[in-house]
Amino acid sequence: VDAIYQARKLLQAKIAQTLESLLLETYQQNKVGSDYQYNATDMGKRRLSSICLLYLNLLAKDQYVELTKLQFDTTNNMTDSMAALESVNDLDISFRSEALVAFGDRWKDDALVMDKWFSLQARSRKSGVLETIKQLLDHPCFSIKNPNNVRALISVFAMANPTAFHAKDGSGYAFLADKIIELNAINPQVASRLVKPLIDWKKYDAGRQKLMKQSLQRIKAVPDLSRDVFEIVDRGLDG
What confidence tens digit (pLDDT) does each residue in 56-102 have? Predict the structure, then answer.
């Protein structure tokens, strides 16, 4: 897990360094300055410019953070705001924290957008992401009883953030097991879908295999475990 992440990170950095001027030029050429319109041309431009901005921020230069801040502060649509956040999602900078708060305050009444906001933070490779996720469980817009919220925050963490979920100390596995056990009493079907990242234990090194199996065994030992969860966990332990 760690080696794959580091190799990918190094490759992305090399791309950003080599193509810096082209990335900046392409970003500027594809900025959609007019009012938001939902059409294929503008969608493509926004997507391309957001990818360029993400790569430029891998260079950790103040000028690109300022460029991102300008986009976030002046954009007239949620898509570009989210793209700005995405481009600094792995950076430990004050702008990221401030923009996340501002975005959450602005869109707190839109459940679909807030799910995107939860997912963004669940995917972050920034240190301390698990603690952030635990804090978000108490956010006014999050409910453990809402399947969409669970998928946006807990499932995305377990399935789309391998570096944090597969932390060597097993904290990611323990957290997921805790949530599966909690959800077992609320919505067994949702709980059962969260088990999959743990039953893939054979794909990982011996240390992680042991910790993943321990979490599965802890789930299996829960009194009155639902059939939905029990069957998946039991098959998973058998490999």
Answer: 999 999 999 999 999 999 998 899 999 999 999 999 999 999 999 99
Q: Which residues contact 184 (CB under 8 A, 6 or more apart)?
A: 191, 219, 222, 225, 226, 229
pLDDT tens-digit series, residues 37-67:
788 998 999 999 999 999 999 999 999 999 9
Residues 97/12/159/211 CA torsion (nearest 10 deg): -100
Of 197, 205, 195, the residue nearest 229 (C-alpha): 195
Rounded-to-integer distance, Cα 68 and Cα 124, Å? 17
Burial of 39 from C-beta contacts in 10 A (0-12 / 13-18 / 19+)? exposed
Handedness of CA 113, 119, 121, 125 (dihedral sign): negative
In angstroms, the Cα distances linking 171 to 53, 86, 91, 212 are: 32, 25, 22, 10
220, containing H or E segment: helix 206-220
pTM of the model: 0.93
Q: Cβ contacts of residue 9 below 8 Å, gap of 6+?
A: none
